[in-house]
């Protein structure tokens, strides 16, 4: 019995991250896991298998990307993914073991479910806020949170627009625990409490009314090209000029083109104040994801060119552990794996910049992990966020999860987000409504 409950809980937890139409199963994962842990025959090895299995399928796309980002021997390249898998599995196992130990000491159903609710809540919050602290910074990941797949039905996340993230997670945990009580008891009290908890959530979803998409979105285009590290300044300009001409021919209304994070994959733009081949083009403004390098530091940057003249450079304020910065205890290891041909990324300490492009409202740029690893928006404005990312390293289903996380952040922060990557380009309003950019292929967008 307990084996089947562990399997069901794992499937309900994992399937929504891979198959969109399974997102309602996230509501069933806590009840099945609680019922599994309360079985008297459960042992440590069962918890270990659940921890390793769920962790593996959650971080497998990240591990595959880590392998793809290095040219070292396979066995050597597997060390970093192995460390990540082992650590997160141990973290989850520790939570399960502590929870299992306490649950066995409790006899009252109400007390047991109360403790389970608090335990699950603390665990889910720790995934978001502190999971990755051994890697040099107190931060976590959204990509293991059971609320993320619910962004496929954005109205379900309406409470995030009114309540703090921690309160919504607690509400989720209480609802699932209250519904679990119905399995163990036929008391009407549990039925009424469950209905009372679910009803306000449902009422919030019915009051979601997205505003109309702003007209300026029609003037913004997406150019998902990757310029190789060896390309010359003139060669890159030639490629971009050709692509701009092609876009102008099919979409004459476009006035701004945005390239994804690190699409110009070298630091030539550090000293390029003029792009002469792009001057006097119909598309007047160009935002290019690239790098800045002054010989001693390297930054992940976004460059704004207007009529071929550089107007502004915005630098990333966060560096991803292992692949962009060395962790506290493994500088030599990271250098040999990921920094053989370039310097680690140095995060900017300056306040977040604002792009004031004449043809559109002001934008606050968030480059990749600036968005994914932030638990709140830190630009202190109400501007539309411009989120750029490099999702070319990841499996197709994970690129959809990355785009889904942007929708989640738009709802959570109640801020519109313009998202640009290699596989996705869309505008998301604060209620989760998505408008695909006209230059992007709808078949590659989340719906």
Explain this structure to me?
This protein is of the alpha/beta class and 447 residues long. It has helices spanning 2-18, 29-37, 44-68, 74-77, 79-103, 109-129, 165-184, 188-206, 233-250, 331-338, 369-372, 396-413, and strands spanning 220-222, 256-258, 285-293, 298-306, 309-315, 363-367, 384-388, 417-420, 425-428, 434-436. The chain has two domains: 2-206; 215-440, Nitrilase/N-carbamoyl-D-aminoacid amidohydrolase (4-Layer Sandwich), CATH 3.60.110. The strands form two sheets. The protein has a five-stranded mixed beta sheet, with no helix packed on it. It has a five-stranded mixed beta sheet with strand order 6-7-8-9-10. The two termini are 38 Å apart.
Keywords, separated by commas or semicolons:
12% strand; 5-stranded mixed β-sheet; globular; 2 domains; 447 residues; alpha/beta
Low-confidence stretches: 441-447
How widely separated are the two ends?
A: 38 Å
What global shape is seen? globular
Number of strands: 10
Under the CATH scheme, which class of the largest domain? Alpha Beta
- What characterizes the major β-sheet? 5 strands, mixed
Fraction in beta strands: 5-15%
Q: Mind telling me which CATH architecture of the largest domain this is? A: 4-Layer Sandwich
Helix content: 40-55%
Annotated CATH homologous superfamily of the largest domain: Carbon-nitrogen hydrolase
Structural class: alpha/beta
Quickly count the domains.
2
Query: Remind me, CATH topology of the largest domain?
Result: Nitrilase/N-carbamoyl-D-aminoacid amidohydrolase
- What does the radius of gyration come to? 24 Å
């Amino acid at each position: 019995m307990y084996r089947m409950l562990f399997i069901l809980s794992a499937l309900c937890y994992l399937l929504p991250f891979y198959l969109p139409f399974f997102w309602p199963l996230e509501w069933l994962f806590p009840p099945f896991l609680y019922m599994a842990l309360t079985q008297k025959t459960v042992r440590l090895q069962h918890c270990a298998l659940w921890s390793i299995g769920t962790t593996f399928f959650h971080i497998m796309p990240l591990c595959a990307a880590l392998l793809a980002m290095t040219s070292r021997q396979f066995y050597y390249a597997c060390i970093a993914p192995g460390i990540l898998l082992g650590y997160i599995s141990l973290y989850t196992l520790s939570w399960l073991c502590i929870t299992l130990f306490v649950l066995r000491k409790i006899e009252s159903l109400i007390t047991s479910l109360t403790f389970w609710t608090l335990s699950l809540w603390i665990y889910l919050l720790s995934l978001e806020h502190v999971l990755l602290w051994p890697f040099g910074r107190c931060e976590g990941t959204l990509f293991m949170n059971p609320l993320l797949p619910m962004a496929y039905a954005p109205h379900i996340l309406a409470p995030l627009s009114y309540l703090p993230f921690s309160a919504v997670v607690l509400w989720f945990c209480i609802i699932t625990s209250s519904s679990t009580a119905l399995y163990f008891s036929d008391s009407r009290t549990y039925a009424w409490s469950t209905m009372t908890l679910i009803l306000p959530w449902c009422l919030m979803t019915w009051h979601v009314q997205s505003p109309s998409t702003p007209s300026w979105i029609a003037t913004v285009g997406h150019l998902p090209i990757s310029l190789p590290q060896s390309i010359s300044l003139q060669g890159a300009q030639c490629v971009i000029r050709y692509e701009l001409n092609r876009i102008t021919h099919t979409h004459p209304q476009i006035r701004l083109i945005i390239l994804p994070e690190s699409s110009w994959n070298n630091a030539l733009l550090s000293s390029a104040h003029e792009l002469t081949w792009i001057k006097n083009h119909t598309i007047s403004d160009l935002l290019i994801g690239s790098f800045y390098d002054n010989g001693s530091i390297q930054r992940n940057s976004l460059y704004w060119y207007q009529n071929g003249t550089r107007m502004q450079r915005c630098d990333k304020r966060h560096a991803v552990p292992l692949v962009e910065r060395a962790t506290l205890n493994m500088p030599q290891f990271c250098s040999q794996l990921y920094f053989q041909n370039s310097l680690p990324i140095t995060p900017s300490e300056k306040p977040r910049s604002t792009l004031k492009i004449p043809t559109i409202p002001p934008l606050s740029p968030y480059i990749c992990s600036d968005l994914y690893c932030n638990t709140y928006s830190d630009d202190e404005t109400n501007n539309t966020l411009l989120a750029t990312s490099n999702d070319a390293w990841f499996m197709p289903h994970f690129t959809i999860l990355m785009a889904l996380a942007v929708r989640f952040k738009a709802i959570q922060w109640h801020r519109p987000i313009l998202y640009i990557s290699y596989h996705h380009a869309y505008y998301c309003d604060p209620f989760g409504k998505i408008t695909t950019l006209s230059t992007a292929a709808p078949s590659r967008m989340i719906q």
